[in-house]
Design brief:
InterPro entries: ADH-like_N (IPR013154), ER (IPR020843), GroES-like_sf (IPR011032), NAD(P)-bd_dom_sf (IPR036291), Quin_OxRdtase/zeta-crystal_CS (IPR002364). By secondary structure, the protein is α/β, with parallel strands linked by helices. The protein folds into two domains: 153 residues, Medium-chain alcohol dehydrogenases, catalytic domain (Quinone Oxidoreductase, Chain A, domain 1); 138 residues, NAD(P)-binding Rossmann-like Domain (Rossmann fold, 3-Layer(aba) Sandwich), CATH 3.40.50. The protein has ten helices and 16 strands. The longest helix is centred in the last third of the chain and has 16 residues. The chain is globular and about 60 Å long. The model has no long low-confidence stretch (mean pLDDT 97). Bound molecules: NADP nicotinamide-adenine-dinucleotide phosphate. The site of NADP nicotinamide-adenine-dinucleotide phosphate has 27 residues, from helix 1, helix 3, helix 4 and helix 10.
Amino acid sequence: MRAIQLSRFGGPDVLDIIEMPKPEPQAGEVLIRVHAAGVNFFEVLMRGDRYAVTPQLPMVLGVEAAGTVEALGHWVDISLAGTRVAAPLFASKRPLGGYADYVTIDASLAVPLPDALSFEDATALMVQGLTAFHLLRQSPPAGKSVLVTAAAGGVGSLLVQLAKRQGASAVIAVAGSRAKLNLALSLGADAAFDYGMSDWSARVREAAGGAGFDIIYDIVGGSMTAAALNALAPCGEMVFAALGRYAIGASELEAMITRNQSLRGFALLPLLSADRLRASLSELFQLVAGGQLAVTQGGRYPLDQANEAHRSLEERRSTGKVVLIP
Ligand SMILES: NC(=O)c1ccc[n+]([C@@H]2O[C@H](COP(=O)([O-])OP(=O)(O)OC[C@H]3O[C@@H](n4cnc5c(N)ncnc54)[C@H](OP(=O)(O)O)[C@@H]3O)[C@@H](O)[C@H]2O)c1
């Protein structure tokens, strides 16, 4: 089978297409023919060795896929054969290998897809959907004014909709282009601002009624965080989910203390037991299948053009979910 291997760190062109043996499902596992493999921004960072952890090379990238069950290991329920499933590899004992023609996963982690849910949309609901879902579960938006950063991206586009749905009093979006702001508005944001403008934090603060936001969901990090803090209300909560790009110093933390503000970390994986994963994914799948949550597809690339998929994310051209189609 074909797979996309990373054997040295660097730009998008270090992604190589290789031939490797098709995996055999072990006892308790299923073999899945991949119809869509999700691409995530953290993989772009990982490829350039800019992520919070340095992975061991060589590795086949990809932590999520959706497809059909093609073969069963011993002791797997025969009714799973041929079914359409999501494979959240990141939660399994072999968390990588999704950019490939086939993956194997423990049968208990293969989550059935409703008929109305496409393979592409299912990939959007794994890392990105679960991140949006659990960010809001950890810091609930009901009755609060909230700021969503990178609001047209994979996580951001779902976060805007779910925060609105869960009763935020105001959802303000920030993103990097006019088209992205329009997308955030179409998804239900009450207002949207370009954070390329020097006075953006004053503008969003005004949009939040002058006092600032009750909650800021920061999935961008870097120098953006310090500017966003100017828009956080007294007693407000900054939720920090941009792993590896934490860039505030002692003076910002001291200012937060004087304003009774809190800083809350967010990391998806430690929050996911197998039961919780299946329950959250099933809930997200039903929301999309039932038309209550929209997935924005931001680019379909053939497997052998994984480098182009990475380029679109890295150059900030993508919106919503980017997928590879083997
Ligand atoms: N903590 C966790 O457990 C967890 C889990 C999943 C994802 N995340 C984080 O959530 C964030 C969003 O992930 P995603 O996969 O949905 O990506 P994404 O938002 O679809 O794509 C990345 C977006 O980030 C923005 N961005 C800001 N600065 C950038 C830069 N220097 N280079 C490239 N893009 C930049 C761009 O949007 P604009 O042009 O609008 O700025 C870009 O489109 C990532 O930071 C990811 O690491 C965290």
